[in-house]
Amino acid sequence: MSVTRWLWVRHAPTDPDGRIIGHTDIPALEPDSESLIRTAAMLQVAGVVLCSPLSRCRTTVETLRGISPALPAPLFDDELKEQHFGTWEGKPYSAVSAWNGLDLKAMAALRPPEGESFLDLIERTNRVISRAGGRFGGQTVAVIAHAGVIRAAVTLALGIPPHRGLSLCIDPLSVTSLTDHGDGGWAVDHVNRT
User: Which domain holds residue 83?
Assistant: First the structure.
């Protein structure tokens, strides 16, 4: 069985100004060069790069490829977008009272109007892993995506209850390394490394 290594990278920092930005396409800020160099170094082994089409991820992958030109050109996948918050997109967090007082289990199941829940995001992320794993099995796959997508990937790898994945801290430009051993067994090499 082939072993596939997944390197999940959160995009560079953004300034959402206290607003909910899931699918909202806001730009990445210019990160410090040391962070970029460290992240690019961790991706040198990647044979494939997948990327969310949102501009904060596009800019991140272009910048990383500028530092490490051997990094393959990205393949963009709409299913790597951040969780869709529907009609809450662009609103200040303080303006959405629906999640006030919810525990993490209820938070994971909460689906914004015209949006998706974290449970939905886990299903979407699983489709990406299944599809890309079948196509690129045995390789090292770098994925430039969003905090929610990376939380979903770790949740799937560990087989933990979905609401536990919401507790994971995923910083900008951090790398989370997961290894699929091809027999249903996963290893979590590291999470949120910067």
Answer: 4-193
